[in-house]
Structures are given as C-alpha cells and as structure tokens.
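Deliverable D5.2: sample structural annotation.
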Amino acid sequence: MDGGDKAGRSSGRQTVLIVEDEEDLVIMLTYNLEREGYTVQSVADGDEAVVAAGEHNPAIIILDWMLPHKSGLDICRQLRRGAKTRDIPVIMLTARGEEADRIRGLDSGADDYISKPFSIVELMARIRAVLRRTGPSSNEDSLEFGDTRMDLVAHRVTRAGRDIHLGPTEFRLLRHFMQYPGRVFSREQLLDVVWGHDVYVEPRTVDVHIRRLRKAINDGDLPDIIRTVRSAGYALDRPKQIDDSDEQGS
C-alpha cells in the first residue's frame, strides 16, 4: 500500500475527495469537513476526479451529479470499474429530487444520495455512517458460504473460484448475510445494519442494492443464493432451499 493509500484510508485523518464545480459549496464543505477532522481534496471536473481518486485513495468521495464535460453518474460508473477506486464509498449530491433520479444515482454505483439544498448536519451524519462500516470486522478474517468466500482483510469476494467485484454497500450487505446464513432480514433491519440508525434512507434503496448484489454474485448463470421472501425481506440460502414461488426480482 503506497503513501496515498495510507493518507486516505488509515485510522488517522481520513481524506474526503469533493468533486464539485460550485466554488461556494466547495468552500462550505471544506470548512465543515476540516472542522470535523478530515483532510479535504477537491476537484471541479470528472477527469480530474478519477485521477485524484486513484492517487489519493480517499476514504470517501462527495460527488456532484451535474458537472462540466462528464456527469456524476458517468464518473461513478468509471470509479466502480477501476481496480484502485471500485471500493471507495461515494455519496452523490444533486438538485434532482425525484425517486427515479435517486434510483439512477444508486444504480450507477453510489452508496448514498442527498438532494440539494441539504443540511450540513445530515451530510456529516451520512459520511460518518458510511465510514463506520468501511473496515472489516476485527473478529473475523474471512467468511464462507457454499462456494462463496469473503476475505475481509483483502476486501475480496470469490464464488466458484472466480473474483466477484462488489461496491462497498453490496460488500457490507453480503457480509451481513454471510454472518447469518438462512436468516430473513427485513428491509428496515438491513437499513439499520448497513446504513445506520442515524441516517434516513428509503426502504426501496435496499432493493436497488440487493439487485446489484444479485447481479454480481450470480454472474455467469450461477444459482441464485439471495432469497426474496414476500412481505418479509431477504435471506442468504443455498440454491436448493430457494422456493421458485418467491420473488426473484427486486
């Protein structure tokens, strides 16, 4: 791990990368983040954002949707494809408040979404909630379920011997499921575990991330190990235990 990695993801001052072209907003965010003890880097366009994320390996990225030359959605997708950047949590800022836009933001790979104008107190709470869950459990180095294995130290997932690439939120969801295989968790329970009690996230957000987790973990026509239980929630089950009458979509 190089110096940039240590600066961004260590237990000391964590680096927040702001990708925003509104200078006044950058100044306000920088002031408040530095008051909270973070180191702040900022860039104003998408190409700079991808380079900065790779160089500094920030603990989290605050990404505006509307940017010159390249949208926040495109930047988020590009970050998720990069070997050095795919695991960095992203909170997207946008003036778009419609549910369809929130879903698009989450589908692009964002871990959270906050609409402008927003409360700085709420944003700080969301940042803390994400960062609390970016590190692996101190009590376990790995988890296994059937042909699926999670290396919590290397932050690596394999299934049937193949690497599975997950975003930070999907990684946390799968880790929770693998800690309690067969147990059904409601959307509200998953929200509390993955997003935290102090952050408001709509229950449908869980469905978006479950759909993304399913797509990744079942890639290559592997049997579906995520079971949807009508009116109850989701569980991790061996394929033979999954009832075809259960909903498989989200």
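Annotation notes: The chain has two domains: 3-132, 142-241. The chain has a mean pLDDT of 80.
The annotation will be released with the project's public dataset once the embargo ends.
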